[in-house]
Amino acid sequence: MKFNGSGFYGEGEGAGDIKRRLWLLSVCVLVFFAVIVLRLWYLQVIKGAYYRKLSEDNRIRVISIRPPRGIIYDRNGIPLADNTPSYTITFTPEDAKGKPEVVQKLAAILGATPEDLDDFIKAEKFRNPYQPIRVRENASFADISEVEAAKDDLPGVSVLVELRRYYPYGDFASHLIGYIGKITPLQHKMAQYADLPPDFLIGQYGLEQAFDKYIRGVPGKKAIEVDAMGHEKRVLYTVDPIAGNDLVTTLDFRAQKAAEEGMKGKTGALVAIDPRNGDVLAMVSKPSFDPNIFTTGLTRKDWQYLTTDPGKPLDNRALQGQFPPGSTFKLAMSLAGLETGKATLTSPVVFCTGGWPFGGRVFHCWDKHGHGRTTLHKAIVQSCDTYFYNLGNILGIDNIAKYANYLGLGMKTGIGLRESSGLIPSTAWKLKYRHCKWYPGETISCAIGQGYVSVTPIQLARMAATITNGGILYRPQVVQAIKYSDGSIKRFSPDVLWKLPVKQSNLNIIEDGMYGVVNEPGGTAHLAGSKRVVVGGKTGTAQVIGLGRGHGLKFKDNAWLVAAAPLYNSKIAVAILMEHAGHGGSACGPLAKQVIEAYLRIDDESIARKNGFGNLTGTILHRAVRNFGNFTGSRIKTFRSMTGVAKTRMLLGYDKKKTAMKKVSEKKG
Fold first, then answer.
1. Residue 327: active-site member
2. What is the pTM of this model?
3. Which CATH architecture has domain 257-627?
4. What DSSP letter does each residue of 459-479 carry, written as one string?
5. In the chain, N or C: fewer CB atoms in 10 Å?
6. Catalytic-labelled residue, pool 327, 334, 383, 426
């Protein structure tokens, strides 16, 4: 054994053992450096792009720029939805890591609690790292001043100037125009929205939604260099957004304004249609909402109103509300009776005593004293229930359904917005959905627009338009044209769904009945009458609960009115529903007149003489000649020589002289 200065070792040990240990040490060193090299390779090659992006994001931010949405106009070029400059406060949480006081200070400026602001930030799950969050849109000047004053204590907080959606008339046509909102995570997965930024605003309701792809535009972006506080130092580059295309709607501002004013404070709906092409001239649903609240951020008070108010302000009653049409349905009944030959101007003759016995019970007429001897024209004018009970029993439910469907009732109109279909029952419908047969007594209720029958206000407006335009059923249209940013224009032509397979003479008889409702003694809609233009219509009062089962406003009948003018050459047809308002003539008549005169621009006596009485006398002469064969040529010549007012008085039955015309009118009535 030998001593080596630090211990003893055997004869067999020495250089070999040292070499072995050196080899192991070398392997460990190589492995260590290999791990380092592999890690560096992984970080720089495999994850290089990721970390390079993080590094760039820490210094360079790419901010999306929202494009100006296309402007929505009425038919005369008045903007109904526009854009306006506004301030937006943004916050980048990554710039304030480990600094909870930043959220507290920012919340205080925004008038929110730190908890609410923190929840709002955490809800932005789909944003990219270092992507600013818009925490306050349409910020006030006071908010901006506070942010700028405390800028050094608010890392990651910035102020943007951008365009926001603005509805200059508040809730004006809000259910039709709609509103916009931030794209939802579910929507972002859809193909049409996949390329949009996570905080992009898209149409969520109404025309804003239906035509979103045309009017939303293309977002731009801006790359900025920031300092350690996340504040902008300089702009590196900008890609300008592309503005959306403009929409020209079919709405008429004056008609819509008149409708809005008349429906203020009420619950119900109004739709006005041009019978010549199906253009929607006005659409109101009340209660309503101000779409501006969706562009600036809903408050809890706003959300509570929208979701808990019993009037359901987000529901578009004009398209989605389904209601019994009441006596307005008698126009469809009349067409069914005339076309099947079950009714003419002279038969059947029903003697109304205030009720009609059937099946062991009495179906009451609205006039408990009765209407006496009644034929079709008088039944329409005075809305005799007894007459239509009898006619409904003669027709049967399937004939009623056939002609109601011809008029577009009980089916979606195809307007291109969310709508309900309503219901026109039939024997097949009841067997399929109720699994039982149809009973004759059910027909009696349906004959006066009760029972299973339900319609939407827009369906009734289209029915009135179809009757007065010669039987052409149009698809309602709400957009006239799209004006593209390059200057080109895409116009939408009227869309005829079908021509009613009915006789024009039968439509004339119904139109005469509508005339009588407004203008003849005993008519139920005198308040819809105008001295300036000939108005025809049909009232309706629909029960919402069985008689005697409830008291108070919510149990009052719904009031209906359909109207058209100028009759025999109609340019506007209106349907009005006022919930729990009682009788259609008194509740809806004045508003119908107001909307009609506003659309026809009849607002002073000089215009009235030119467009009102002139049309009045000419129209009634046409009516008289068409319907009264004994109104001879000599009498027409005498008639033309009379003054306009005398003509009107004579033909309306106001003249004391018993002219031949008046005698014929009395025989007809």
1. yes
2. 0.81
3. 3-Layer(aba) Sandwich (3.40)
4. HHHHHHHHHHTTSEEEPPB-E
5. N
6. 327
